[in-house]
Amino acid sequence: MEKVRLGKTNLIVTKLGWGGIPIQRPGEREAVSVIRAVIEMGVDLLDTARAYTNSEHRIGLALQRMDRPVILSSKSLVRTVKIYNEVHESLKQMKVKKVNIYHLHGVSDFEDYEKVMAPGGAYEGLIRARDEGLVDHIGITSHNLNVLERAIGDGYFDVIMACYSFLEPDAAQKVFPLAKEKDIGMLAMKPFSGGVIEEAGPALRFVLATANIVPIPGSETLGKARENWKIFTEGGSLTDKDKERIEAIKKEFNRQFCRRCDYCQPCTEKINIQFAVGLKTIVKRFGPHVQELKWMMDLIEKARNCSECGECLPRCPYQLPIPDMIKENLAWFDSLRNQ
Ligand code: SF4
Ligand code: SF4
Question: 324: Cβ below 6 Å to ligand 2?
Fold first, then answer.
């Protein structure tokens, strides 16, 4: 079974990790049994976040009475030194004394990056947590490859996490080679592009073919966890059939799928456009707990300010009908709430 050294962390993990977003959806008993099965199968790294409602707690429950050690990765959206308190909360939820990798979660642009890196910012809080032995390594996650490029260049991080799939392949050119050169560990989130790609075989074989990275697909059912693990352990490169399917899926989503590149920004109303156009898939992945998440509800409320000015339209290289998508997504979300 293929293992990967996560750069300077020197952690050696299975090339397939596991992501803790979808596990918010099932009932608690089923969720815990899926996580235990994932650990028993042999997955070495579990990723979660403070922002994923019950995910850390469920991992904590699953880890009870499990002998097999796993590498834990979590993250927080807090942007000040108060992230230190978040680390304590993660430890409490997961019932552990240490989290191996703790990330600054979703650093969206350079302004956000400067905020977390400034005196009194979240990076300082994570240094304190590391000095006290509460975390081993500090990471950064972002949908913005420019932010990751800068973070890698600045050299303060042990691990980076980027979106990577055949629908969003740019990290392979823009950040992975740089991170490899600096000996930074690489985690690849959203190998199914956040649930948009439904065919696990082509999606996973595509990301697994990239050297030195660890994709972290989530799974909320035992069936999905087993399917992902089987694809990984069987190995093998992309088949001709996979390549055909990839081309067909790329064509299908060409003018519907947001690649999270942020070229459409800035929005005149300061809307997080990639969030607003991807709202449906995000809400589906988080499940019914979405309304408990203040950060998400704030982004949704902000998206309602779209004035349909159209300024973002010529900046989207994929010609996505941004204001129409935002309107449709908000209407869909409101219909869900009224059900
Ligand atoms: S159309 Fe909407 S999303 Fe695009 S720039 Fe204008 S307000 Fe922002
Ligand atoms: S809407 Fe277009 S420009 Fe904006 S993030 Fe998505 S793909 Fe990129």
Answer: no
